[in-house]
Amino acid sequence: MMAVNFVFLATAASCMLLTFVYGQQAPIQLDNICLGCICEASSGCNQTLACDGDVCGPFRITWAFWSDAGKPTLNGEPSTNPGAYPRCANDAFCAGAIIQGYMQKFAKDCNGDKVIDCKDFARIHRLGAYGCHGGLDTKYENAFNSCLRTYG
Predict the structure, then answer these.
(1) How far apart are CA 56 and CA 50, in angstroms?
(2) Are 59 and 98 in contact (CB under 8 A)?
(3) Fewer beta carbons within 10 angstroms: which end of the chain, N or C?
(4) Quick check: helix, strand or coil at residue 117?
(5) Largest CA distance in the chain
(6) C-alpha span between 6 and 53 (Å, rounded)
(7) 132-149: per-residue pLDDT in tens?
(8) Position 19 pLDDT exceeds 80
(9) What is the rounded distance in angstroms from the CA atom of residue 94 to the CA atom of residue 16?
(10) Residue 5's pLDDT is what?
(11) Total-model pTM
(12) Nearest to 126, CA basis, from 53, 16, 39, 50
């Protein structure tokens, strides 16, 4: 099941990467493996997850995260449309754009290795832009690292 979800997300991310971040300087782009492993760690990359409490979709994205990412929307609908956030967060392609937008804005070296890479993006995704130096919960960290060992 993980391989199927991973292939689906990688395909979605590939399509999304072709259209995201036009005109920005030195865009941060997460590769398909990184996006897939963040998704895997977040929910097992369960594409059937909808909104539950304040999180939506397989990446478990909050409204604030979506807003900080620039409020990308599905099919270019206005971000002010009712339901724009959950529709985007629940769609693999659009959720990838949310993650990309957030990382474009907040990318930093969270683990102190002087490199901004997927490990930093996973921390930023889970702990937020200003908390990424903190400790990851064991379940998320183990799932993420296992995915990177398998696919990275």
Answers:
(1) 5
(2) yes
(3) N
(4) coil
(5) 42
(6) 25
(7) 999 999 999 999 999 999
(8) no
(9) 8
(10) 59
(11) 0.83
(12) 39
* Axis-axis angle for helices 2-17, 32-43 (nearest 10): 130
DSSP letters spanning 70-95? T---GGG--TTSTTHHHHHHTSHHHH
Position 29 confidence tier, pLDDT thresholds 50, 70, 90: confident
Closest CA to 149 of 127, 118, 110, 112: 118
Determine phi and psi for 55, rounding to 5 degrees. Answer: -125, 150
The answer, yes or no, to whether residue 99 has pLDDT greater than 90, is yes
Residue 98 sits in a domain of what CATH number?
1.10.530.10
Domain residues for 46? 2-151
pLDDT recorded at residue 18: 36
Q: Residue 9: what pLDDT?
A: 53
**Unique residue bearing structure tokens 């979800």:** 5
Which residue in the block uniquely carries the two structure tokens 């998320």?
140
